[in-house]
Amino acid sequence: MVIHGENIGHKYDLDVEVLTIGRGRDNDVCVNHRSVSRHHVEIHIEERGAKLKDLGSTNGTYVNEQPVRTVYLRDGDRIKVGRTVFKFISGTNVEAAYHDQLYAMTRYDALTGVYNRRAFDEKITDEVARARRYGRPLALLLFDIDHFKRCNDTYGHRAGDHVLREVAQLVQRRARKHDFVARYGGEEFAALLLEFEEPGPRLFAEEVRALVQDHEFEFEGTVIPITMSIGLVLWTPEHETAGQLIEAADQCLYRAKEGGRNRVVIAGT
């Protein structure tokens, strides 16, 4: 099934001997993107299992981020053809696994594994309402990877995807179980911190900034220098809506980038 790219959520049944994928309309699965070869890859259904075979494509076929020529697929493998990512689902209950994956796609970002924008929008609305009703502490951080376009232009989009995944996992590992980390859009991430004591959010923001700055982002033998700017706002009663809280954090993020990047700016300071 498609988990990233055009036709997201679409399922292709492997009920043929050979399934072809490519840019040409004569393929079983047409991926119409300039990075995809006319006849890019085939999946052969054999007694041993499903065998993927790259057809000498210009930009290659990747399984779990590794370039492959021929490989037998395993349940859960991610197949990347151009900018489209497929997930191979097998086993005794494919239909149930398919619906589980569809649900996950409504909540999680396919590239990074953290929550997606839709889940974030729902969560922040709920948490602002709880903060207003019960006075519970709530903090919002917006993170933006500095000069990310330059990273893509210099090292390529696959390297950029690698950086996004690594940054997301660095933030996720530092967060506590009841905190909420999401991909807000593009190279921007968000974190909601709940049930904390001061100066918890300030320490969290600075630690995450330092983690990214000091992390070795290595992709195919090349180390990519990465830093991140962060805007932080603590909820107060004047933030009546989730939108107002986001706007306050976004203004802090803007100040962090205007102030030279690779820094934390806190609302009210």
UniProtKB/TrEMBL annotation:
<dbReference type="InterPro" id="IPR000253">
    <property type="entry name" value="FHA_dom"/>
</dbReference>
<dbReference type="Pfam" id="PF00498">
    <property type="entry name" value="FHA"/>
</dbReference>
<dbReference type="InterPro" id="IPR029787">
    <property type="entry name" value="Nucleotide_cyclase"/>
</dbReference>
<dbReference type="InterPro" id="IPR050469">
    <property type="entry name" value="Diguanylate_Cyclase"/>
</dbReference>
<dbReference type="Pfam" id="PF00990">
    <property type="entry name" value="GGDEF"/>
</dbReference>
<dbReference type="GO" id="GO:0052621">
    <property type="term" value="F:diguanylate cyclase activity"/>
</dbReference>
<dbReference type="GO" id="GO:0005886">
    <property type="term" value="C:plasma membrane"/>
</dbReference>
<dbReference type="InterPro" id="IPR043128">
    <property type="entry name" value="Rev_trsase/Diguanyl_cyclase"/>
</dbReference>
<protein>
    <recommendedName>
        <fullName>diguanylate cyclase</fullName>
        <ecNumber>2.7.7.65</ecNumber>
    </recommendedName>
</protein>
<dbReference type="GO" id="GO:1902201">
    <property type="term" value="P:negative regulation of bacterial-type flagellum-dependent cell motility"/>
</dbReference>
<feature type="domain" description="GGDEF">
    <location>
        <begin position="136"/>
        <end position="269"/>
    </location>
</feature>
<dbReference type="GO" id="GO:0043709">
    <property type="term" value="P:cell adhesion involved in single-species biofilm formation"/>
</dbReference>
<dbReference type="InterPro" id="IPR008984">
    <property type="entry name" value="SMAD_FHA_dom_sf"/>
</dbReference>
<dbReference type="InterPro" id="IPR000160">
    <property type="entry name" value="GGDEF_dom"/>
</dbReference>
<feature type="domain" description="FHA">
    <location>
        <begin position="19"/>
        <end position="68"/>
    </location>
</feature>
